[in-house]
Structures are given as C-alpha cells and as structure tokens.
Amino acid sequence: MEKTINILGLAGSLRKGSYNRSLLRAAPELVPNGASIEIFDLEGIPPFSQDFENQPPEKVKEFKAKIRAADAILISTPEYNYSIPGVLKNAIDCASRPYGDNAWEGKPVAIMGASPGMFGTARAQYHLRQTFVFLNMHPLNRPEVMVPYANEKIDANGKVTDPKTREKIQELLQSFVIWTRRLKEG
Ligand SMILES: Cc1cc2nc3c(=O)[nH]c(=O)nc-3n(C[C@H](O)[C@H](O)[C@H](O)COP(=O)(O)O)c2cc1C
Question: What is the Cα–Cα distance from 170 to 172, expressed in whole angstroms?
C-alpha cells in the first residue's frame, strides 16, 4: 500500500471570516484517498528580524518542524496590493532562515487563492511562485485555482458553496498528490 501523503495547509490571511481560510478548510473534504491535510495557523508568528534568526521563537520552531514533517505544502492566499500579504511573506521568511536551515527546501507546493475582485489573486500567486525559486520549492503548475468574486462562492458560515470552485480544488489536490508522489519517488 502507498504511504499517506501529508499536506500542510497555510492560509495567508488572519481575518476571522477569511475566504482563503475557507478554501483551505474545504480541502480536507476534497482531498483524494491516500492523502491528508493539516492546517497550521500563522497567527502568532512575530515579525522577522535577522538579529534573532539564530534564536527563533517557539512558534517559528514549531512551524519549521511542521513544514519539515510534511510531504507537501498547500498555500491559500489573498492578494494584497497586487502581491503577497505581509503575514504570509513574513512566515515564509521566518521558516527560510538562518542561512543553510531553510525548512522549505525541496518541498512540493501548490497554491490557491480567493478574492472578491475579478482577478482571483492571480498577481499574488505569480509573485509567490517567484519566491519558490530561491526557496528551492517545487510548485505544481496546473491547475491554477484563482477564485474571483469569492463573496458569491463562499457563504456566511465560510462554506465553499460554488460547485465549480469545489471541483477546481478537488482537481488541484488530485494533481498535487500525483506531483508529490512523483517527486518523492525521484
Ligand atoms: C491591504 C489590502 C490590499 C488589498 N489588495 C487587493 C488586491 O491587490 N487585489 C485584490 O483582488 N484584492 C485586494 N484586497 C481585497 C482582498 O482580496 C479582500 O480583503 C479579501 O477578502 C482578503 O482575503 P481573505 O478574505 O482571505 O482575508 C486587498 C485587501 C487589503 C486589506
């Protein structure tokens, strides 16, 4: 029997009613057999300072251990000012340091994102892909899950109600598990 693929899910928003956290919460219901998703909350990761990178706070140590223990990383992110929200970029930076101790090294990664606007986080997602180059992560190229007009697709309880959006997340997860297995088999 194939080993279970453990995916660590991260939302790039701390907002209580976050559409992006809603996308992530839908993922465990849509993940294929043979894979599981654990969500890690970025709340509490302090602003990064290189002065303290050799003595990281407990939350950052815990975060890096979770990343290392995961087979793959799933990020659901908003777009802020055409780019990656500071909360997510800060978390990425924290786990990438100190030099030589990059927890992201070699990890398969997939992205999705939701916005009430019409571009569904496209610009943030391409900026995020750029950071994966230096982190030496392995992003899944397709399908791209960019959810525009998210307020019409996610209800007041945070449930993703739009069938097409659920289908897209399901497709992403299926491709992502295949991608992760392929990379692990090397
Ligand atoms: C600082 C800031 C900048 C934003 N910039 C963009 C943007 O560039 N593109 C966009 O589609 N939405 C933008 N928005 C709107 C967000 O898409 C919206 O607040 C969304 O709900 C955030 O994701 P969340 O629901 O997961 O918190 C911005 C919101 C904030 C607070």
Answer: 5
